């Protein structure tokens, strides 16, 4: 128990002493360099007893509840290397949840165990370029047809985080019996990683891949879960995935705010310290208000998940609020830092701003969540 009490402080020390000193511009859009950094950090995280905070003890994890892991994820998130060093970063973290829930013993042996041990990485492929599935998953164009006791998958996916250097992919494809999840090894000759997309956020482990499935043959046991239940599983995956992103990215926003606070304490303008100017004080206050509200909404969602309550509505509200609040924080932090906040070389703030921007789009764009929430509230009697 005492280990848990000071766990957050120990994660903070790990991030300060090991992750932040290893941060480098050399990692920008370079999945191989990021993997090399993780290979250095993960043994240290294991040695310090910080590895896999979210997984059950029987799977080699620390077995933390959602509420317990909230502050751990936030502390880890202060560095872009932190969550992956603890092996609690997306997409491996939600993929582990899917494999735990829906994987057969053989799939767990082949994919979950090495993933948990950090011997392989993975990705999750749902999104397709137009006219395929994006905000609307029912537009799924990737198909899988039964052939010779197995399946043949054809389709085109993009923005698949973690794809570069991943060992396997969980892909969503339409079958005659409904949408279905398949596990496909990345070295399958029918699967090509066409390119690594240079997205606005440069520090994603495994980058963001564009994938083509061309007559991609997989065995019958490649189906993850039941045939036809792919959308149900994807929905079940998204709720915890969204909350985890909120928790980790709060750490990134906090880091930007810390840098801005340090700057305004030292920098002067027209004879005043920036920190003594009311407009600066208001920006700092607004950042802390956004952070506090984000934390409380996330913790409420975490508590509900620990209690086994539904979070369909709460996780959507939390995702919209937190993704927008964190962007406001990073934007104000950059503003307070002046030119320094625009430099990718001299401060972490500019890159944090870029890292946080896509969060308003992935895991459901704000507009989509607002549309769904609005309809849900208006159609209920309360
Ligand atoms: C950095 C990054 C990482 C990602 N990682 C992954 C991944 O690992 N795996 C994966 O499968 N996908 C991933 N995605 C894709 C992501 O899930 C999609 O971008 C998202 O679902 C939106 O789909 P879309 O891009 O096709 O946008 P579209 O569906 O084309 O929507 C465009 C815009 O239209 C608006 N809009 C859409 N629908 C509605 C509506 N009903 N009401 C009002 N407005 C609406 C929103 O503003 C939306 O941003 C990633 C995306 C990014 C940017």
Word description of this protein:
- The chain has 382 residues and is an alpha+beta fold.
- 49% of the residues lie in helices and 16% in strands.
- It has twelve helices and ten strands.
- A hairpin with a 2-residue loop joins β4 and β5.
- α8 runs antiparallel to α9.
- The chain is globular.
- The structure holds flavin-adenine dinucleotide.
- Flavin-adenine dinucleotide (FAD) binds next to β1, β3 and α12.
Helix content: 40-55%
Order of helices and strands: HHHHHHHEEEEEEEEHEEHHHH
CATH architecture descriptor text of the largest domain: Up-down Bundle
Number of domains: 3
CATH-defined topology of the largest domain: Butyryl-CoA Dehydrogenase, subunit A, domain 3
Overall average pLDDT: 96
| Unreliable residue stretches | none
